């Protein structure tokens, strides 16, 4: 009897991959040996304090500036002088200030994009609907709120129906309602199969939207993975609630224990075996152990400790 044919798994290359991507200005590396990997269909949150190199990285992905070293691959193909034009045709981007002529209406701005890129009317209408600006198209852009300008910028980036969208700090300066509007938009785009790379210096602005996070500090990637992997990697404190915290701190000095208020003692970076050892040591000293738990950590705590609070 012949065995059924084995279908090889479909391996989709990352939509963006960089290898040792580096940018140096005057001998200083502002992007340093970066290995980015952005899976297809995700919202990739690119986080880091101001000046950590996010914009410089995004500009290199878009070929707006030349890397000093390393390589960029988009959808499995190397970005070179020969492939650049074609690859950029499948990327929409919003870098720095929102684009658009202030003295023209939203509709006039979109018509310019249509003509410039040789698009059809349906593509323009779809993009405007996606960012929910269809009722604002006859207003001059100078009368738009910042959030509306950002959404118009995103509509311009979306009009060519890109597979990849690169947005540099699209929520910067927006009020909570504007931030929520952009979050919802990014989720809808990812649901429609667009891969979105979005930068921010504020974790709270994108952590609920992003499936994958890349955290940059001083030009180096200090973490890349899912939100839950980040929480796991951060090894939260173990908190032991006990009858005599002063004596417990003395007993657990080799574990770097500290008094954490009332009956609590906090111990950093303990694995399960070490936790059992710490509890046994307390029991051996006749200190009553009331409870043992892992500290609650917000993603903000983790981010702050990873980036040592620099610039936040
Ligand atoms: N053309 C340039 N010449 C010299 N230094 C530069 C240049 N462009 C950027 N830098 C420096 O590179 C570092 C990274 O800047 P970049 O704008 O990429 O950071 P960022 O993470 O995007 O921060 P921000 O959110 O503030 O823009 C900064 O120290 C910046 O001053």
From TrEMBL:
UniProt keyword Metal-binding present: no
Domain of life where this protein originates: Bacteria
Residue intervals of the ABC transporter domain: 16-243
UniProt-listed PROSITE patterns: ABC_TRANSPORTER_1, ABC_TRANSPORTER_2
Keyword annotations of the record: ATP-binding, Nucleotide-binding, Transport
Keyword NADP carried by entry: no
One Gene Ontology term of the molecular function aspect: ATP hydrolysis activity
Pfam families assigned: ABC_tran
Family according to the record: Belongs to the ABC transporter superfamily.
Record-given protein name: ATP-binding cassette domain-containing protein
């Amino acid at each position: 009897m012949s065995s059924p044919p084995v279908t090889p798994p479909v391996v989709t290359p990352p939509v963006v991959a960089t290898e040792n991507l580096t940018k140096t200005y005057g001998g200083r590396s502002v992007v340093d040996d970066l290995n980015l990997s952005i899976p297809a269909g995700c919202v990739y949150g690119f986080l880091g304090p101001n000046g950590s190199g996010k914009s410089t990285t995004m500009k290199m992905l878009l070929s707006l500036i030349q890397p000093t070293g390393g390589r960029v691959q988009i959808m499995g193909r190397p970005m070179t002088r020969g492939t650049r034009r074609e690859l950029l045709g499948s990327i929409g981007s919003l870098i720095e200030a929102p684009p658009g002529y202030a003295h023209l209406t939203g509709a006039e701005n979109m018509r310019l994009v249509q003509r410039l890129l040789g698009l059809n009317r349906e593509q323009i209408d779809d993009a405007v609907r996606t960012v929910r600006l269809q009722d604002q198209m006859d207003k001059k852009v100078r009368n738009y709120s910042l959030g509306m300008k950002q959404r118009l910028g995103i509509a311009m980036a979306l009009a060519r129906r890109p597979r990849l969208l690169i947005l540099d700090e699209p929520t910067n300066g927006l009020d909570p309602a504007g931030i929520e509007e952009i979050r919802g938009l990014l989720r809808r785009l990812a649901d429609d199969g667009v891969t979105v790379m979005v930068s921010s210096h504020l974790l709270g602005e994108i952590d609920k939207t992003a499936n994958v996070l890349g955290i940059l500090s001083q030009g180096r990637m200090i973490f890349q993975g899912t939100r839950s992997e980040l929480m796991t990697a951060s090894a939260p404190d173990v908190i032991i609630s006990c009858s005599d915290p002063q004596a417990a701190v003395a007993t657990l000095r080799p574990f770097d224990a500290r008094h954490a208020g009332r009956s609590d003692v906090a111990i950093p970076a303990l694995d399960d075996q070490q936790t059992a050892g710490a509890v046994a040591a307390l029991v051996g000293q006749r200190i009553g152990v009331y409870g043992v738990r892992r500290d609650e950590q917000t993603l903000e705590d983790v981010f702050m400790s990873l980036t040592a609070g620099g610039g936040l």
